[in-house]
């Protein structure tokens, strides 16, 4: 694994869109260590916050999940997963603000992706089901919570399983679900936007009758780099870091103008139009151009431009 030196990598992580910040402007240097795969050590106060939030999440499970299964037993539409995900996101520290109007059904949301918190916040805001990377499903507790909302997990290296995953998506759309995909294929840092992968968009070739595409921008503001799950960091370590944070953080969920996928025939055209709209909104949110993502991600065949590489994922 090729790695930049500590000083160089810190510089990469704090490089602004229009210039370069000094290393002492960086976030907690443990963030860099976490991205290198080094387990984060929590201080006593951080450990207290972590276990307090874990306790609150368990309380939310106890009060919400049994009601969800009761609703299912009675064959009633259950609002409990959405309510639970919204509560769980808030316990984790997210203060979500919804901008725009989400379509409620017959919609394919296409979003950028930073964290497992994306699933909590988006699910809580819209009730959507998800397509997410398999690592999220394998993360204890987090994977189970996401599964309550009908998440379809994708193994990025399992190209032979794409047809089966597409069939799951077709079934979901046939039941009038709202479905969210994260076509970057991995999580980033909120300052970058990777090329969009299109295999999961095959479900829109041709688009099911009445289905619209709505791009979504997730913007964590200044907290994005700390929240983002990047590099070699494991899911459990990321959850520990986030749940141990001292403060809450803003999360602006912008539901952009929907479009008819029939106006952009083919999955590549749909992906390109969605990415164009998300990039435009992200540039406006950042107040400047995007920067290259600094971490290699082998499963999606992404390598940073020369001189920008900080590590591998």
Task: Show the helix and strand layout.
Elements (H helix, E strand, L loop, with lengths): L5 H9 E2 L2 E2 L9 H6 L8 H30 L6 H12 L2 E6 L7 E5 L5 H10 L2 E5 H5 L3 H6 L4 E3 L7 H13 L3 E4 L30 E8 L4 H4 L7 H9 L5 E7 L11 H20 L8 E2 L14 E2 L1
Parallel strand pairs: 3-9, 4-7, 4-8, 5-6, 5-7, 10-11
Antiparallel strand pairs: 1-2, 8-9
Helix pairs in contact: 3-4, 3-10, 4-5
Describe the structure in your own words:
By secondary structure, the chain is an alpha/beta fold. It has two domains: 1-38, no CATH class; 41-289, no CATH class. The chain has eleven helices and eleven strands. The strands form three sheets. A seven-stranded mixed beta sheet has the order 3-9-8-4-7-5-6, sandwiched between helices. It has a two-stranded antiparallel sheet with strand order 1-2. It has a two-stranded parallel ribbon with strand order 10-11. A hairpin with a 2-residue loop joins strand 1 and strand 2. The longest helix has 30 residues, at 44-73. The relative contact order is 0.18.
